Amino acid sequence: MSGLVPAASPASIDGPEHVTRPTAYDAILLASFGGPEGQDDVIPFLRNVTRGRGIPEERLEEVAHHYRAFGGVSPINDQNRELKAALEAELARRGIDLPVIWGNRNWDPYLRDALVEADQAGHRTLLAIATSAYSSYSSCRQYREDFALALSETGLEGTVTIDKVRQFFDHPGFVQPFIEGVAEGLAEIERRLPGIDLVTEARVLFSTHSIPTGDADKSGPDFRGFGAGGAYAAQHLAVSEVVMTESGRGVPWELVYQSRSGPPTQPWLEPDVNERIEQLAADGVRAIVIVPVGFVSDHLEVKWDLDTEAAETAEEHGVLAVRVPTPGTHSAYVAGLVDLIEERRDARPVAERKSVTSLGPWYDVCRPGCCENARLGFRPAVAGIAP
């Protein structure tokens, strides 16, 4: 393919940090992780997720019981159906005539099916929204690799272009639901524990998916120099600080991690949310607010790892735990995603783009060398400058 950015629109193909030429998109590609829709889907789905990693069947069975506890149905698919409908309604409200086509990385409807659907409808200039707000291999580059793979599998390379909205971790539409959630969570603690001193007896734990430290260190472009934890950790910390400034009332807070799935010998980001709850209980903390700041919806890793495991850990140690909602289909979040569509379509100047931390607004086109997989290296990807 010609140009620096594979499968890109003319405005993006030369790789600007922020596009300066408007683009007439044909459709929105809503891209998500995917999840099983029944008990028979669970193991095949987990094989899809772990393909090429050599994960033994017994380990898949261990993870499968999380899904089986919910009837083998991941909440994520219904949540994406709701998000798709909400996006369509907001686009219509603004008079934007763009269809939303939904495709998953790991389960039906697959990304390749979404691309075929788009092509058959004559939609060949696509703008993708991935249901992940932060920078890392698994939350950004892997989506971009799967876009490239889907184009190859469908033979649509050179016919369909795919751009992608910037990472939206610090867009106010994404952050506002957490600001409201923390305020409400602290108020709930006061209602349930009258007389509690929030500053000395409560904590706010911002939780996100743990990833291998090697991947974390490589997240974001090298020239930003984020150091240990890379852009992934820096972005979460920056967002959490904004939330606490707006609604934290001086309560101590920290970033914790969940859902670790690697072997014990591989370093992953820490501390683990459950281990931290145990430590806080030993230090006399009576209540915690758990903020799933790394997630856009209440999917299985929220429902199981936080609402089940972390909640049980807190109860075992006599700590009141309140979990705040994810953005889901919150009106501010949905409106914010459409803001991102408009800013990319119209090539809005950086000064007019919304962000609430000093790290953003993030890049329209991923920079060279961004978010390398520490184990696999770089594979073909769209929506970014080739490394």
TrEMBL record:
<comment type="function">
    <text>Involved in coproporphyrin-dependent heme b biosynthesis. Catalyzes the insertion of ferrous iron into coproporphyrin III to form Fe-coproporphyrin III.</text>
</comment>
<feature type="binding site">
    <location>
        <position position="209"/>
    </location>
    <ligand>
        <name>Fe(2+)</name>
    </ligand>
</feature>
<keyword id="KW-0479">Metal-binding</keyword>
<dbReference type="GO" id="GO:0046872">
    <property type="term" value="F:metal ion binding"/>
</dbReference>
<keyword id="KW-0963">Cytoplasm</keyword>
<keyword id="KW-0456">Lyase</keyword>
<dbReference type="InterPro" id="IPR001015">
    <property type="entry name" value="Ferrochelatase"/>
</dbReference>
<dbReference type="Pfam" id="PF00762">
    <property type="entry name" value="Ferrochelatase"/>
</dbReference>
<protein>
    <recommendedName>
        <fullName>Coproporphyrin III ferrochelatase</fullName>
        <ecNumber>4.99.1.9</ecNumber>
    </recommendedName>
</protein>
<keyword id="KW-0627">Porphyrin biosynthesis</keyword>
<keyword id="KW-0350">Heme biosynthesis</keyword>
<dbReference type="InterPro" id="IPR033644">
    <property type="entry name" value="Ferrochelatase_C"/>
</dbReference>
<dbReference type="InterPro" id="IPR033659">
    <property type="entry name" value="Ferrochelatase_N"/>
</dbReference>
<dbReference type="GO" id="GO:0004325">
    <property type="term" value="F:ferrochelatase activity"/>
</dbReference>
<keyword id="KW-0408">Iron</keyword>
<comment type="pathway">
    <text>Porphyrin-containing compound metabolism; protoheme biosynthesis.</text>
</comment>
<feature type="binding site">
    <location>
        <position position="74"/>
    </location>
    <ligand>
        <name>Fe-coproporphyrin III</name>
    </ligand>
</feature>
<dbReference type="GO" id="GO:0006783">
    <property type="term" value="P:heme biosynthetic process"/>
</dbReference>
<dbReference type="GO" id="GO:0005737">
    <property type="term" value="C:cytoplasm"/>
</dbReference>
<feature type="binding site">
    <location>
        <position position="143"/>
    </location>
    <ligand>
        <name>Fe-coproporphyrin III</name>
    </ligand>
</feature>
<feature type="binding site">
    <location>
        <position position="301"/>
    </location>
    <ligand>
        <name>Fe(2+)</name>
    </ligand>
</feature>
<comment type="similarity">
    <text>Belongs to the ferrochelatase family.</text>
</comment>
